[in-house]
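Would you mind writing out a protein's amino acid sequence and the numbers that encode its backbone to help me picture the idea?
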Amino acid sequence: MIEQKDLNWGQGSAVPQRKEVPTPHQQPQAQPQVIPKRVPLSGLERVLITTIAAVCGFFMITLVSTQVGLTTTQRQYQNLTTTINNKKSQNNDLQQEIGELTSSQRLNEFAKAHGLTLIEGNIRNIGK
């Protein structure tokens, strides 16, 4: 379709004529970009990369191993602490039972039950 601004109505012609629109100059095509090629690694670089990777791997394995050992040791410590606390509780219970069994009141009751008499002069109190 012809647009109004492109028509030239002047100049006395009956048929509209097109204006020539100047075409922009085409720029010369740019040279294709050069893609840099990868430079191969030298032998020293390969050795360094391999050594660093091996050292990092060694440290990772050592760290995990140490963490597992530490966790195991902590669990053993907790078990030992629990066992010690249980034994202390049992010892306290037994000490209390010993105190009850060796009380003078209990000994007097046992003596009366078996027909024994108590002579106060024969009793000695020994402290630890």
Remarks:
- The chain has a mean pLDDT of 83.
- The longest strand covers residues 7-8.
- Strands lie at 7-8, 17-18.
